[in-house]
Every structure is written in C-alpha cells, then in structure tokens.
Amino acid sequence: GEDVEQSLFLSVREGDSSVINCTYTDSSSTYLYWYKQEPGAGLQLLTYIFSNMDMKQDQRLTVLLNKKDKHLSLRIADTQTGDSAIYFCAERENYGQNFVFGPGTRLSVLP
Amino acid sequence: KAGVTQTPRYLIKTRGQQVTLSCSPISGHRSVSWYQQTPGQGLQFLFEYFSETQRNKGNFPGRFSGRQFSNSRSEMNVSTLELGDSALYLCASGGQSETQYFGPGTRLLVL
C-alpha cells in the first residue's frame, strides 16, 4: 500500500532555513501536499505541488519534488518562532481518492 | 467564506457509550473526509463522503460510521466506545479542486 515517511524531529535556530523531507512510495501520486499543525489546532494547508512540477515557491516556502526518487522537501526561509509546529507531508493519487499522510515532523525553532 | 466547523470541540465519554460528531464543510464543498489523530498512530483516514455517498473508507471497525446530508454537513458516529478511541477527530472539506481544508477538530476523551 501507499506509505509516506518523514523524519520526526527537526530543530533550527531562528533566522536559519529549515528543510523538512518526505519520501513516498506510490509512484502514481499526482498531488503532494504540505500541511502545518499548531498545538491544539487542525491542519492548515501550506502549499501543494503537482507531480509534473519540480519546484514551487510561495513567499518563504519552497517545495522541491524529485519524482525519480519519490522525495519531497519543504524549505522555510528565515524560520521564525511562529513556524514551530508539526509539518505533515501528504500524497494523493487522483482527485476523488483519499489522502495518505506522513507521521509529521515536529519543527522546533530556537531563539 | 467561513471555514470548516466541527462540533463539539471537546467531549468526555465513558467506555461503552456512543458519540456523534458533526462537521460543516466550507460552503459549496461537497466532499467531507474524517480522520482520527492519535500520538501513537498519527493521522489515519476514516472515511470520505461525497454528495451523500461514502466514496472511500479506511481500515476502521464497523463501530465507526458516518453519513452526509443533502446540505453536505456530515456526522460521524462511534458506538461502544473504547479507551483507545480517545483522539482528535478531524474533518476535512474538499471542493472542485485538489485540496482539503481541515476543521479545528473534536477532542474526544474516553474514560
């Protein structure tokens, strides 16, 4: 079955860049997503990328997709303390099919 | 546009009882998905409803059921509650796009 993996923890200094990595197994994945979850809250959609794209940039966020290696990354430039949260990678094969989420990476931003 | 709303936000039940959770999607969205989030198992897909029909289903026992009404509002029911059902239950709303938008969740505690 489909599987999405992420490292569980990442710690960075305020002002540095953060890179959160994700690997997935389903080569049919068409859509790949990054969500953010703050304590006690639901998931907030950050960005998503189609599998025919290599990169997508949105303000401080850059998503890189290596389809050959089934590797997705999220780079957060100039990381702030407000970026401390759990970041989930998710994939979806096609519209109408369910999302498969990774375990989440807990990002801690140190002052 | 109002976001996804879930009620109640917090709930305490005892083993053996049943519970009903409610989700109102974003206006115009016809898809509602339910997820269970626990520290041990992460985010697990329960089921998805689209236009009042269950479109996808995860690997949960029959004690977990749901339905969707003609106004796209959805309810999730868990019967014969077990301690292990304690979790954050998240609802996600999807429209004619590739994305899902999550509600704040209902935190269920089973004693």
Describe this protein's structure.
Helix content of chain A is 0%, strand content 56%. Chain A is mostly beta strands and 111 residues long. In chain A, the strands form two sheets. In chain A, strands 2, 4, 5, 9, 10 and 11 form a six-stranded mixed beta sheet that branches. Chain A has a five-stranded antiparallel beta sheet with strand order 1-3-8-7-6, with no helix packed on it. In chain A, strand 9 and strand 10 form a beta hairpin. Chain A is globular and about 40 Å long. With 111 residues, chain B is mainly β. In chain B, 36% of the residues are buried. The mean pLDDT of chain B is 93. Chain B contains no helices and eleven strands. Chain B is globular, with a radius of gyration of 13 Å. In chain B, strand 4 and strand 5 form a beta hairpin.
Cα-based radius of gyration of chain B, to the nearest Å: 13 Å
Helix content of chain B: under 10%
Structural class of chain A: mainly beta
Average pLDDT score of chain B: 93
Q: Bin the helical content of chain A.
A: under 10%
**Secondary-structure element order of chain A, N to C:** EEEEEEEEEEE
Quaternary state, please?
Answer: heterodimer
| Elements of chain B, N to C (H/E) | EEEEEEEEEEE
